[in-house]
Specification:
two-stranded antiparallel ribbon, two-stranded antiparallel sheet, globular
């Protein structure tokens, strides 16, 4: 987790390649706990969630002038909209869902306007290919130069499209937006369509996946990591709900199937998976200790599409979601007492730096209630001084 002095939120500037999660000096749980406690030292323990996460706390830290300051400095050149502002937008949606107070949607409307104004075609920036894209480029990650990263588009669009659903279906905001609602939807669909050239069906029946194009990863044509697929899948699902376009629905389901078919069913009953999932579906069970698990931060993004689809009764069953709950209980949260591992298998060689925004796992508690205890205990004992807007919003929504 990296803090920036420019923006009043905690930004999660995550790498776009396979993270180096192993540390050679750490081989035991005791070694990991020592490094974990060093990483999160300085937090003031709390007895209950309302001491660290309430609507009042959120409002004081992230609404009003704080939000306007953030919106005034938006740029994705270094990935800040993707790995910072997207969480801010998602948090405002979560706060609305937790409280039904329309002020959070009004605030998000203001932030989304600024995000759309920062699109490459509106700020006049070209990609290394010479194209001016209707999406958000970054100069940071590719040796070739400025690229549009599939994962950036997915994580930016998902909270915007969710906002449009909430404005239409769960509040009276849409009528007051007039043509702006339609304009935001059009802008979002344009950005989503930028990636059509990087999508293909297969390899198994009913699957689909995105692959690297135009230098966004080292090898054009290689299938992208699961968390990238998940980010786009959420955007496609929301786009279907907003437009009724069955092609959007089918793409979301195909991306979900691609992920589901590559999850490892371990003997402990949990799902585990890699950052780079294999090209072909997984058919054999593998013990947790033999899986090179995705780091816990990126894995929360991988998990987000299965959660969305399960919530809406598609593809992922309650049994699937219970398996994800066991990922927390037997993997990343297996020690309890507020300690979380930096990868989903609970590998003591993992880095506690990847324990980032673990509140994104809280939604699993609807299927596996003990997940709530494992995640909330982290915040009460270790994480209260490391909270950005979505940490607080998700604790308000699911942690009480």
């Amino acid at each position: 987790m990296i803090r920036t002095v420019l923006l009043p939120v905690v930004l999660l500037l995550l790498p776009l390649s396979l993270p180096a999660i192993a540390e050679e000096t750490a081989t035991t749980d005791e070694d990991y706990v020592r490094r974990f406690e060093e990483r999160f030292k300085g937090a003031t323990p709390a007895a209950a969630v309302p001491e660290i996460a309430t609507p009042k706390i959120f409002d004081e830290r992230f609404l009003g002038e704080k939000l306007r300051e953030h919106a005034s400095k938006l740029s994705n050149d270094q990935g800040n909209i993707a790995w910072g502002t997207s969480y801010y937008m998602a948090a405002l949606n979560d706060m609305f869902l937790a409280t039904k107070e329309k002020e959070y949607l009004e605030a998000n409307r203001e932030l989304i306007r600024a995000v759309m104004a920062a699109r490459d075609d509106r700020i006049g920036k070209q990609l290394w290919t010479g194209e001016t894209a209707k999406a958000w480029g970054s100069d940071k990650y590719s040796k070739k130069g400025r690229c549009i990263f599939t994962v950036h588009t997915g994580v930016i669009l998902t909270p915007i499209l969710e906002f449009l659903r909430l404005a239409r279906d769960s509040s009276d905001l849409k009528p007051s937006m007039g043509a702006e609602w339609d304009s935001l939807l059009t802008d979002s669909l344009e950005a989503l369509a930028h990636h059509n050239k990087g999508y293909r069906e297969g390899p198994a029946k009913g699957e689909g996946h995105y692959f690297g194009t135009d230098g966004e990863i080292a090898e054009d044509g290689k299938h992208l990591p699961a968390n990238w697929q998940s980010a786009m899948g959420q955007a496609h699902w929301h786009a279907w709900r907003l437009t009724g376009d069955e092609a959007q629905k089918q793409r979301a389901l195909a991306l979900g199937a691609h992920i589901k078919n590559r999850l490892v069913k371990a003997p402990d009953g949990a799902y585990y998976w890699q950052y780079w999932m294999p090209e072909q579906p997984v058919t054999e069970s593998t013990p947790r200790e033999e899986v090179q698990g995705e780091d816990s931060s990126h894995a929360a993004l991988t998990l987000s599409l299965p959660i969305l689809l399960a919530e809406e009764g598609a593809l992922f069953t309650p049994e699937d979601m219970e398996r994800f709950g066991k990922t927390v209980l037997f993997g990343m949260g297996r020690l309890g007492k507020g300690v979380l591992f930096g990868d989903i298998t609970g590998n003591p060689k993992s880095s506690p730096d990847y324990v980032s925004l673990p509140a994104r796992w809280l939604n699993l508690a609807r299927w596996t209630p003990e997940v709530k205890t494992r995640i909330v205990d982290f915040y009460l004992k270790h994480g209260s001084s490391h909270m950005g807007p979505q940490d607080i919003a998700l604790l308000v929504r699911f942690g009480g």
